[in-house]
């Protein structure tokens, strides 16, 4: 029997430093997130970052936490319930980090007699620290504990026409009541080094975008390329004026150079250029989370206004929108009946 395994990033069990610490430990000790030799990662994560970050992150999580729990988890659960209602096969939800593990979700499917799984990393774009780590972890769990289950993976869907239609509609709705001067597409950042590491040709990706007009297999795994593609396709679909749109990258950790331009610098630049009314969209995330609700909707607003901006709006992620649920259900049915995957 076929079944589906939806996987999102995960959250701590509660917004306290006590629960944030083990969650961040699992997250940041992932070799695809902090990709330095293990001994160095240990010193960096356990000896330095985890000494102070859990307290700071817990404070941020407290600002966005809902009565039902972490927004990312609650939204993902609601999404799974709604997708289940539109399909007739078992659907489980797991998280890459934290207590709702991928292994438990596999077990749920196995208990229902599933022996063929569609793995759905809930990320539109490929990055080794998001999509790839989900796939690697799921395949590890499958090989170790569920060797008789066959796994097929949904590809990154950053340029899929149906996804672009749904994303564009959600953005168009957000633009309706807001006379904007500028629309900022802010994606989660990654270290520039990750782009080079994910380039199978080892020479295509140049980080500055000069490579992106040349067709290459490298684009299948180039996070930067894929983010700009999503922006371009939405801009085209909505007919947004080119001079009123830009793309940036948020949420960097200190240290190496991350993808530029940095979102927080963009807030300042746009405000200083006289853009008074700013819309921010965050398409790297399918569900709202700490990085959108706190960093963008709260902190971003403050940064923009402090720099002279006047009106600021964050458009929510796709979350549990009916058209997004219907699209996921249609991808699942296509795979279930004809083994077709979205391109
Ligand atoms: C080296 C560090 C990090 C990389 C690389 C990274 C990539 C990455 N992350 C997401 C999605 C999310 N990240 C979230 C939180 C978060 N991310 C990092 C670090 C890296 N992420 C940290 C330390 C945290 C925790 C919060 C904090 O302390 O600031 C979240 C939110 C989780 C939630 O519970 O709401 C998401 C979602 C992507 C898509 C990505 C690569 C493209
Ligand atoms: Fe992150
Ligand atoms: Fe490129």
TrEMBL record:
Compartment annotation: Cytoplasm
GO cellular-component term (any): cytoplasm
Annotated pathway: Porphyrin-containing compound metabolism; protoheme biosynthesis; protoheme from protoporphyrin-IX: step 1/1
SUPFAM superfamilies given in the database record: Chelatase
TM region positions: none
Reaction catalysis annotation: Fe-coproporphyrin III + 2 H(+) = coproporphyrin III + Fe(2+); heme b + 2 H(+) = protoporphyrin IX + Fe(2+)
Keywords per UniProt: Cytoplasm, Heme biosynthesis, Iron, Lyase, Metal-binding, Porphyrin biosynthesis
Coarse class of the protein's main subcellular location: cytoplasm
Pfam families: Ferrochelatase
Gene Ontology BP, a term: heme biosynthetic process
Enzyme class: lyase
Gene Ontology terms, MF aspect: ferrochelatase activity; metal ion binding
Binding positions (Fe(2+)): 188, 291
Classification via CDD domains: Ferrochelatase_C, Ferrochelatase_N
Enzyme nomenclature, EC number: 4.98.1.1
Coiled coil: none
Signal peptide: none
InterPro entries xrefs: Ferrochelatase, Ferrochelatase_C, Ferrochelatase_N
Similarity annotation: Belongs to the ferrochelatase family.
Task performed by this protein: Catalyzes the ferrous insertion into protoporphyrin IX.
Protein's recorded name: Ferrochelatase
Organism, scientific name: Muriicola jejuensis
């Amino acid at each position: 029997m076929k079944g589906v395994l939806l996987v999102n990033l995960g959250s701590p069990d509660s917004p306290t430093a006590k629960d944030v610490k083990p969650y961040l430990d699992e997250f940041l000790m992932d070799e695809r997130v902090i990709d330095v030799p293990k001994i160095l990662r240990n010193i960096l994560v356990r000896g330095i970052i985890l000494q102070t970050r859990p307290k700071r992150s817990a404070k941020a999580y407290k600002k966005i936490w809902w009565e039902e729990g972490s927004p990312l988890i609650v939204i993902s659960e609601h999404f799974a319930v709604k997708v289940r209602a539109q399909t007739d096969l078992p659907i489980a939800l797991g998280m890459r980090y934290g207590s709702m593990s991928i292994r438990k979700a596999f077990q749920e499917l196995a208990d229902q007699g599933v022996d063929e799984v569609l793995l759905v990393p809930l990320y539109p774009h490929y990055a080794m620290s998001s999509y790839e780590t989900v796939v690697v972890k799921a395949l590890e769990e499958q090989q170790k504990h569920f060797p008789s289950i066959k796994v097929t993976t949904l590809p990154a869907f950053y340029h899929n026409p149906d996804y672009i239609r749904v994303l564009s509609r959600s953005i168009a709705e957000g633009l309706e009541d807001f006379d904007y001067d500028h629309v900022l597409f802010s994606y989660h950042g990654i270290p520039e080094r990750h782009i080079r590491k994910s380039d199978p040709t080892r020479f295509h990706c140049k980080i500055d975008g000069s490579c992106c007009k040349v067709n290459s297999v490298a684009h299948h795994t180039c996070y930067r390329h894929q983010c700009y593609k999503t922006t371009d396709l939405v801009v085209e679909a909505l007919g947004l004026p080119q001079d009123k749109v830009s793309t940036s990258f948020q949420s960097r950790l200190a240290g190496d150079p991350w993808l530029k331009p940095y979102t927080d610098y963009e807030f300042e630049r746009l405000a200083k250029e006289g853009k008074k009314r700013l819309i921010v969209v965050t398409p790297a995330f399918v569900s709202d989370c700490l990085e959108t609700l706190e960093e963008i909707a709260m902190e971003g607003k403050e940064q923009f206004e402090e720099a002279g901006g006047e009106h600021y709006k964050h458009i929510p992620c796709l979350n549990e929108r009916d058209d997004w649920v219907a699209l996921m259900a249609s991808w699942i049915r296509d795979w279930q009946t004809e083994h077709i995957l979205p391109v």
